[in-house]
Amino acid sequence: MDGRSVVQYFGKSKNSSCDYCSVPGSGKCCYGIWAYQLNVTHYQKMLDKGWRRSGHYCYKPIHEESCCTLHTIRCDALEFRPSRSQKRVMKRFERFLRTGEFKQQKFDSFQYKDPSEEFFTVENVINDKTLDKNAECFLRLTVSDCNPTCNILDVGNMQVCTLQVDREQTNSFESGYSERKQKKAKFRRRQRKILKLKEKGIDPSTWIKKQPPVKNLEDYIRFSDESKTFKHCFHVKMIRSSPASSDFNDTFEESFEVFKKYQMAIHNDGIRSWSERKYREFLCESPLVAENFPNVANELGYGSYHCQYWLDGKIIAVGVLDILPNCISSKYFYYDPFYKFLSLGTFSALKEIELTRHLAKIIPQLHFYYMGYYIHNCPKMRYKGNFHPSFLLCTETCNWFPIETCLGMLNLGNCYKFSSANAGETKRHKFPSKNFILTLWHNLENNLIATDYSTYCLTRGLQKDREVEEYAALLGDMAIQSMFLYLA
After folding, report:
1. CA dihedral sign of residues 179, 183, 189, 193
2. Where are the domains of the chain?
3. Each residue of 61-89: b (16+ CB within 10 Å) or e?
4. Would you say the C-alpha torsion 207, 178, 86, 79 has a positive or negative sign?
5. pLDDT digits (tens, 9 = 90+) for 424-464
6. Distance between CA atoms of 394 and 217, rounded to whole angstroms?
7. pTM for this structure?
8. Given the DSSP bridges, would you call strands 234-242 and 303-311 parallel, antiparallel or unpaired?
9. 372-389 confidence digits (pLDDT tens)
10. Whole-angstrom distance, CA of residue 254 vs CA of residue 24
């Protein structure tokens, strides 16, 4: 790909607070790079080394010096299969668009309590108006089954046994009762089916149940084209944010208002916490060089985008995405808190996976969906591990490991290394000679000069810089190929 990258290395930075945990005295440490211009191929390689960007600022966590361990996580979109809960999110969303109604989960209306935590007195049982003759019979049967130490009380015309049952016995009884109930219902359904087959003159022994066709992600989530027949009109629109397209400029104010609502409601930010300038720097400006897909017309191309979710003519959510040679990288997502009941966070991730699958048909190697960092000790971030198959990056070897094989190590505490560096694996501190690093610097006449690092040191009469060696170790071959290090 054409285009060169220009970056400035900032070295280590230490923050006194952590955004992910509330441990007193905690903090995070990271390496920092300011990217003036970044080739999408270079940024893809940086992602695969554990880097992320926020606007023009790129950072890589230093796990040994941070309270929380941040692992880059990605999902193979072509192998993705939605879970039952993810299917429910898509079905509820579709039902809302079609009918205009949203049915909450049954368990949302009450709080579950452990039965073992509730205590009943004999008076409460007797005064219960729902108690009938069947209950009286059950109590008497219970008395006959109890051991002789039960206390039998005469209350009116009833005999009541008060006893204490071990938790294991209770669980055994409940599980056995549930299992018998399920078997009974299944048996009845089977008997009804056999009768229907016999009425039709079909031998039940020759009947084979037809299995419903297996649905993929697209079958569940591609319903926006049918919105003309729905109560609500919904569609998704991808607009280039850098360089800003006309659509981006036209919808900027509306998108910014949704962002402020989200930050105040979800993150408890103050009304003056976010200015337009700060919002642009955080989610709109990007160092990525926009490029078209090779040999493909009328498609998005590489670069930075805002994925807008429109409902009835207004923006209700926005996903901030980077489209790179091997992946779609999800940078941030925000939504109108009024529509929180639609589970837009999960829905947007599914929609972005579907977009990745679509682009993979055009660019076969573009089939990964990057979800940022997975933080095992932060409950709010664990949802990222629910999109299977997912893989975590080992920052020591720069290899990917299935998340299932990493959870055991993560449960033991902060873990940033999933395997030893074996032959053929990329070692973190393997780097090219610093003498061949490409550099940009101003001479005495204030002209911008491009040379290798060795020439720069000879011209300036300087000794080798430890931070330049650190930069070379972190970026590897990129530092000597087409990425220029700006030296102020």
Report:
1. positive
2. 5-100+230-428, 119-162, 429-488
3. bbbeebbbbbbbbbbbbeebebeeebbeb
4. negative
5. 444 444 555 667 899 999 988 889 999 999 899 888 888 77
6. 29
7. 0.76
8. antiparallel
9. 999 988 888 889 999 999
10. 38
